[in-house]
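Narrative summary of target 7.
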Amino acid sequence: MAATSCAFGVYVQGMTCVQFQALPPELRSVEDAAMLRMAQQQAWKRCPAAGCGHVVERSEGCNHMRCRCGVDFCYACGSAYRNSQPSADNVHGTPSCSCPLFSVPEEAEEQAVAQPVLLRRATRPWRNGRLVSRTPCRHSASIYDCPQGPSRCWFWHDEDNEQAEGA
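Modeled conformation, tokenized:
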């Protein structure tokens, strides 16, 4: 993901300059923008109260959330509760939505199709029983022109590229 340079002289990962400028002034730091990006990726919710917007993560339990600012809201849809007086249907108050009190959100891991991860170790050539360094030889591009000779130089040469690609 490329970082973009805004007119503000900051670099924001994963946001265009227009998206960054659309943020409220108190969220225009690079750290806040990165936090909002992470919250979006994790599907966390923000408090619906005007002027609040704290990020809230539901780890377990019902859809009722109470923000640190005191606002009650539904985690499923993000709408604020009408009141916080317990009712027969909901001990937390009267929601302004028709979402069920308990619902299990789909986890990102369950939605994604499990694909095996193939780990391949980068191969480095060996020369006379010793691993060749990834640092290029400062004497010669070719091992055959190296003053150390093909059996004594442990630095990277053009021939090592061919050997590493073939492995």
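Residues 30-42 form the longest helix (13 residues).
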